[in-house]
Amino acid sequence: MSHKIDDLTEKLLECLEELDHYKANLDTWTDSLDELSEIEDAFEADSRNKLHGKTILDIGTDCVKPLYIALKFEPDKIIGIDEDLSYPYTSDVEQNSKLFTKTEIKLYNCSCFNKERLEKILTKEKQTTSDFVLISKTLHHLRTGECIAKERDQNHECHPDEECCIYKFEEQKIFDRLLQLGKRVIVYEYFCAPEEDDDKVRGRGGYFTTEEWRQIFRHLSENYRVELIKPLRCHLDKKGLKPVIAKLRQIDCICFYLEQSPDG
């Protein structure tokens, strides 16, 4: 009898694991739809609310959002690179999207840090510079500097696998790089400093702290044209930093876009 109970328990656990897997996949589809409803205001759509003739580079793509964007806005092409955050249905989305949208969707396993591979991909796709660069819940992964975990935990020790590390975010280096890849950079970012990032890749993870956001927005306001969409609609400049920073403690999502400043 005990063997039967053990077998049933094992099967039940397997079913629960499978259910969790399907729920995680479903959450990706529903979350992407919610995010698009806020991100869409950052696109410069025409009078028909379309992006005909436009191209998009989706950095850290979840593979789902490109499909939603293609169906709603009909851009010419969307190239997605996954920043090593792979999804199991990439090929299905890429192939089957051809059945119901004219937008060409191409999805690659690549990081924007891998300049050689990315340049080959963009050259192959004849898209060296895009109209839009979309970064959805991925900005905090684009960390390049030394480990700063010790600033938050005096007992931190770096290990070879860097799983417990948090790299520094280098604003100038990252945003300069992004604006080389596209004319308008759209950022949608979830952040919750007390939480662990469940898709953290080595030291390239860790949600931004309020102080990191303060540094990011200060740099952006001094160097680029920045339009904030969420938590409030406004043009971001040095004078408007204070109310934006005050809002950071009340929310967990931010959406904004940036372009090169008109005066250089």
Essential attributes:
264 residues; eight-stranded mixed β-sheet; alpha/beta
Q: How does this structure look, described?
A:
The chain is α/β, with parallel strands linked by helices and 264 residues long. It has one domain (2-260): Rossmann fold (3-Layer(aba) Sandwich), CATH 3.40.50. It is built from eight helices and eight strands, in the order αβαβαβαβααβαββαβ. The chain has helices at residues 2-39, 64-73, 90-96, 115-124, 149-152, 171-181, 210-223, 241-248; strands at 55-59, 77-81, 104-108, 130-136, 182-190, 224-230, 234-236, 253-260. Strands 3-2-1-4-5-8-6-7 form an eight-stranded mixed beta sheet, with helices on both faces. β1, α2 and β2 form a beta-alpha-beta unit. The protein starts with a helix and ends with a strand. The mean pLDDT is 86.
Low-pLDDT sequence parts:
none
Approximately how much helix is present in the residues? 25-40%
Q: What is the number of beta strands? A: 8
The end-to-end distance, rounded to whole angstroms, is 78 Å
Average the pLDDT over all residues and give the rounded result: 86
| Name of the level-1 CATH class | Alpha Beta
Count of domains: 1
Succession of helices and strands: HEHEHEHEHHEHEEHE
Structural class: alpha/beta
Provide the CATH topology. Rossmann fold
CA radius of gyration is 20 Å
Q: Largest beta sheet, briefly?
A: 8 strands, mixed
Query: In what order do the strands lie side by side in the largest sheet?
Result: 3-2-1-4-5-8-6-7
Find the CATH superfamily. Answer: Vaccinia Virus protein VP39
The general outline is globular
Q: Would you identify the CATH architecture?
A: 3-Layer(aba) Sandwich
- Percentage of residues in DSSP E strands: 15-25%
Count of DSSP-assigned helices: 8
